[in-house]
Amino acid sequence: MLENIYKIKDFLAGMDKVLIIIHQRPDGDACGSALAMSSYLKSLGKQTSIFSADPPPSYFYFLPSISEITNDKNIFQQNWQAVIFLDCGDIKNSRLPIELSGHLTIINIDHHFTNTGYGDFNLVDASASSTCEVVYNFLKKVDFEIDKNMATCLLTGIMTDTGGFSNSATSRDSLDIASELVQSGGKINYLYGHLTKNKSMAGLRLWGLVMSRLKFNQRYNLVYTYVKDQDFRDYNISEEEADGLTDFFNVIDGVDLVVFLRLRQGETKVSLRTTKNNIDVSRLAQLFGGGGHKKASGFTVPWQITEKDGKLVIE
User: Fold this and answer.
1) Domains observed in the chain
2) What is the pLDDT of residues 108-125, one digit of tens each?
3) Which terminal CB of the chain, N or C, has fewer other CB atoms within 10 Å?
């Protein structure tokens, strides 16, 4: 791992233009790690931009320099020398609009254990709580001083991926690193307010609707529910209002698995969650071309699922 860090450091030292790419529908870990890495590259005098196929949710707008993240595809017309993928277990999860040219060197920095090591340089630590933790370790090993803005970004990723230090991703290392980031200027209470107090009244009504649809499958000891495109139109809210729903259902006692379906036109996104030590939902997600973590994974399939007489039907 240490050898890979120094190889990446040395390689980046020789680059002038480096593009950063994060996964579609970026979360706190993707945004935080990208903004921290961007700050590092700029300190070295590099030109850099951050691309995401989808704009960040509005509740991350408090992050320093969040406006750097763009979904403008024209960014690919620039003459980049290298690309850093952050928090992408698979390149396809970035939903790139183009194929990367063969001469573009790929640096892959991630924490998903399903990551195949697709980069020319790979810094993947499946034991880390988040990609922000991996980036933090990289910055410490190259003796880079983390300022308060970077601390805020990195702490955001660790907090979101550990569920506020409550899920199985929480470790001694993640707590120690969080403590050091607080010493560098990150404020947990400030972040917690932005990350949790981000729902409108209409959004909470949507949550109530989704909860009312909860069904229990006794055979597989799982619960499932769904949200439709029309639901967002009916409540006149954005899709980000549903963020956090899947994780919230982990509070249900006695079930092995939570399945949350996002029914779109022509496709269905499936999110899987479990709190059981003997269940690895990433293996199920991989069967359908997805991935993630042992306790939190997902995949998207080209199925048109509709609701008929209270039941879900694949058309």
Assistant:
1) 2-196 (3.90.1640.10), 201-314 (3.10.310.30)
2) 999 998 898 999 999 999
3) C
